[in-house]
Predict the 3D structure of the following.
Amino acid sequence: MNPMNPNRDAILARLAGSSLPVSGDVLAHELGLSRAGIWKHIQSMRKQGIRIESYTGRGYQLKSDVLSPAMLQDQLGETLIGSECMVFDEIDSTNREAMRQAEAGADEGLVIIANRQTSGRGRLGRSWYTAEHDSLALSILLRPDIGPEKVAQLSLLTAVALFRALSEFVPGLGIKWPNDIMYNGAKIAGILTEMRGEPGQVHAVVIGIGINVRRPAGGWPEEITRKVSDLSTASGRDLSRLDTALAIIRAMERGYREYSTSGFAPIREAWWRAHAASGQRVRAHGSNGYVEGIAEALDNDGALLLRTGGKLQRFIAGDIELMDVN
Ligand code: BTN
């Protein structure tokens, strides 16, 4: 459960930044370590499942899709989101870890990523599967100056940020209320937002983002019964978790700044435009069964307004199903 060791992180960042092998001498010299030390770190990373090839006389080359704090921060520069990044090889849940860090006083903008989650969590008490090195499990700690009733707006903001970021790789994505990212009726990414606070004031909000970056080599586990897809299949090219994480962090930075200066209205408009069911017939499943109607608007609390018969009904929690699309 420990975050990545800083020397390993530096070795990975150096290897990831080079398309050619990098020699042990160069690594040792640049990072101020002995060659034996470099070799030990490489061996221990291989034991963790990271593929690093060695080529006689030429050096080491990274073959796995790994990411590390240095790789992220080298490319992000000065941002609020990602001002601190932690990468764990294995953790219970990045959301839980972000909340533990929040309780220990961590600053807004902290990003937690894990290669494996042992109890990844989804919306409505569901579990969330993270395919090692093929999925991105990322949580962001925010400390917005808002009341608890507005936290749902941050989930919708995140859906817009994901839609914008992932649309750089895949055209034709859509949001499905409240915050699933869909491609051709299959889910590619989900968001779980959690908070700590008191009446009138939020102390910490953790935004958890799960993205299927590529299809796991052995396929999806059987217990996943819903239709799922992944970014690489949808885009037709092998995307990296690093590029996906960078695009998301940048889009979150943009969305959060927009929210802080202009409030929820522009986010709500962007969400409505990206929502696959805007103006369409949907079936909304809640804890008391379902209702059908036309999705007519989104309100400031994140509720979907459904036109059923002559009435407008607020739908607050649950899932929707599109009736006119497969
Ligand atoms: C959903 O049900 O659609 C939400 C899924 C959210 C999963 C992410 S993965 C990173 C973070 N850590 C968790 O335990 N859950 C969220």
